[in-house]
Amino acid sequence: MDIEAITGDITRVRVDAIVNAANRLLLGGGGVDGAIHAAAGPALLEACRELRRTTYPQGLPVGEAAATAAGALPATWVIHTVGPNRNVGETERELLAACFTSSLRLAAELGARSVAFPAIGAGAFGWQMVTVAELATEAVRSAEAAGVERVTFVLTDDRATQLFRLALTPARSRGRLVR
C-alpha cells in the first residue's frame, strides 16, 4: 500500500473513500466534519440520519467506522469514525488507532482502492498532532485492508504535513519526533 501525506482540502481529493472525523451523533459539526458535510450537501446529512435511525440510534461508538454515500463529494463513500476526545478524559491511544484501522477495514469491504484521512483526534479533540501522526501512520501500516492501494493523509497545514511525512519515514532515519 502506498501512503502519503499532503497539505490540502480533503473535500476536493479524488479518492474512493474520504474518512470523516465525525462526532458520535453523525449529524455534522465543526472542523473537518463540518467541511465534509458542507461540501457533500444535504444527501450526506440524510444518509447519516438514516444510520442513526437504523444502525446507531445511540450514536457511533468511539473507534468504530460506518459508511455512507458521499453526496456531492468527488469520492464514492464517506467513512465516518469518532476519535477519542482527550478533553473529556478519553486518552486511550488504542481507541485513536482503532479509528484508522476500522476505517481501512471498512474501506476494503466496500472495495475502495484509495482512501483519504484527516488528522483524526487533533484539533478540537485535544490530541497533539505529533501523537496523531505517529499513531495514524503505524495503524495504517499494520491494518488488514486487502485491495486498498493508496492512503493519503490530507492535512490542513504544512506543519501537520511535515509531522506525518516524518512519521512515515523509516524509524532508523528519522530519530525521535519532537513533541
UniProtKB/TrEMBL annotation:
It comes from the Bacteria. This is O-acetyl-ADP-ribose deacetylase. PANTHER family: GANGLIOSIDE INDUCED DIFFERENTIATION ASSOCIATED PROTEIN 2-RELATED, MACRO DOMAIN-CONTAINING PROTEIN. Pfam families: Macro. It comes from Pseudoclavibacter chungangensis. Residues 1-172 form the Macro domain. Coiled coil: none annotated.
